[in-house]
């Protein structure tokens, strides 16, 4: 039931994860990220998504501490960067992430990219499984994994990833990947849900938005949620952070959902996970 910012989905290990959160990609560490995260928490957000490579985990941790909100009420995600893949290096990087955040545990830890040419995501995943069994992270998952990456990982793993965070928006609906994740009870999560603003003037989305008295961004976020895809739109402006969460007082019809699905162009704004090899 999508009722408000407390709405959650249950991952396959029983952990409840908020359907809507704040992403802090490209948010500067220090005052900017502290203000952004604190604004989100004040507006009722409880899920914050960061990553080691974002360079702002310290600021996220500061905002969490200054918010005064009980740790158990929050859902904090971070990601392992590519240069830290490998068993021992993953364990070290995880501890560094916890130190920067000032936390005792994470709610979700993700392998940021598969890097198939590096060939280390399986040993990296073994370290993730260790962290999970030790109770240092409540759920483990991956990011930017395609179906074949997931299949290769799962066949040699004890634990199936709980989450796969990927680029997902009306121009990239990832239907085959969504079907694979559904089959294996892997929750899909969207990054770049607004395609970095490139969809905000789309005529179909604008028409639907006008009908509901909403913005195109709100329509896209609502489409994510009704598609059972967790979404983490980013903003550094308090009014936009609040606006992005104002999506629980309307519902898209089946016809509108189909119209948005038909906008798919299999068009990425980010790199192809098969090719991306930055470390």
Automatic annotation (TrEMBL):
Oxidoreductase found in the keyword field: yes
Domain NADP-dependent oxidoreductase: 20-264
Compositional bias per record (Basic and acidic residues), positions renumbered to this chain: 265-279
Any one Pfam family match given in the protein's UniProt record, by short name: Aldo_ket_red
UniProt KW keywords: NADP, Oxidoreductase
Family statement drawn from the similarity comment of this UniProt entry: Belongs to the aldo/keto reductase family.
Protein known as: Aldo/keto reductase
């Amino acid at each position: 039931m999508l009722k408000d910012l407390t709405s959650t989905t249950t991952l396959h290990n029983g952990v409840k994860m908020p359907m809507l959160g704040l992403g802090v990609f490209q948010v500067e560490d220090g005052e900017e990220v502290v203000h952004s995260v604190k604004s989100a928490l004040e507006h009722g957000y409880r899920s914050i998504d960061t990553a080691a490579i974002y360079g702002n985990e310290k600021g996220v941790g500061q905002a969490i501490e200054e918010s005064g909100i009980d740790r158990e009420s929050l859902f904090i995600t971070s990601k392992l960067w590519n240069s830290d893949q490998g068993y021992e290096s993953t364990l070290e990087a995880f501890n560094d992430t916890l130190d920067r955040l000032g936390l005792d545990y994470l709610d979700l830890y993700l392998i940021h990219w598969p890097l198939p040419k590096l060939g280390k995501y399986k040993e990296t995943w073994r370290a993730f499984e260790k962290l999970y069994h030790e109770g240092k992270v409540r759920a483990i998952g991956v990011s930017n994994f395609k179906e074949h990456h997931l299949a290769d990982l799962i066949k040699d793993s004890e634990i199936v990833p709980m989450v796969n965070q990927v680029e997902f928006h009306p121009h990239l609906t990832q239907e085959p990947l969504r079907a694979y994740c559904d089959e294996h009870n892997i929750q899909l999560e969207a990054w770049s849900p607004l395609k970095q603003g490139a969809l905000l003037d789309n005529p179909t989305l604008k028409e639907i938005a006008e009908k509901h008295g909403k913005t195109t961004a709100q329509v896209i976020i609502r489409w994510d949620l009704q598609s059972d895809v967790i979404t983490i739109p980013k903003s550094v402006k308090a009014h936009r952070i609040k606006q992005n969460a104002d999506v629980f007082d309307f519902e898209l019809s089946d016809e509108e959902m189909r119209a948005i699905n038909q906008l798919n162009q299999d068009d990425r704004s980010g790199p192809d996970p098969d090719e991306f090899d930055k470390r």
